[in-house]
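During the reporting period the student researcher (J.K.) took over the structure-prediction task from the postdoctoral fellow and processed the backlog of single-chain submissions. One of the processed entries is reproduced below for the supervisory committee.
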Amino acid sequence: MAKLIREFSVLMHDFPHHLSIHAGGVIISEKPIVCYTALNHPPKGFPVTQFSMLESEDIGLYKYDILSQRGLGHIRDTVDIVKKNRGIDIDIHQIKAFKKDEKIKELIRNGRCMGCFYVESPAMRMLLKKLQVDTYIQLVAASSIIRPGVARSGMMREYILRTHDPARRTYIHPVMKELMEETYGIMVYQEDVIKVAHHFAGLDLSEADVLRRG
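J.K. obtained the following structure tokens:
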């Protein structure tokens, strides 16, 4: 019996053990989707492809993510509560004003971001305090350098050092300064890899994107 179980387990290795549904992933195709794959029809009624986004990209299909964020509902509820209790109308679309608001900047610099989507984890709040984030550009950069690939490469530490010590902001080539001056010469974003490969290796942008994913 043990031998039989082993034989079947080898055959089953790496097979998916269940079908799952991406929370908001929609596959877009030129022809009817059944021209590319059989469909699964779960109880919820939405037809589901039988491959992941990786296979979708390999055969030239597009995956569009439609995601929700419950924090947006909390913001709406907060606006309603302020209106009810204080009689104050708050326009949450005044993005330019929020970027200049000193009270907001102080909260971010001190990592007081509990309840704020994407910047509320302990690691992120610690990073915001280390960087003393003061601008929107720095906030965007922080959300990228904390990702595992950038952090493990040592670029997160170097970015922190260069943020506080302008003397460390060196560039190996004038074009590197042109491409990444706002991140102090550190390849923080995936687009940075694409731009560098495009300029220095002569790859077109789609080829550079394949290199970036590799």
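The committee noted the following: The first strand starts at residue 25 and ends at 28.
J.K. will present the remaining backlog at the next meeting.
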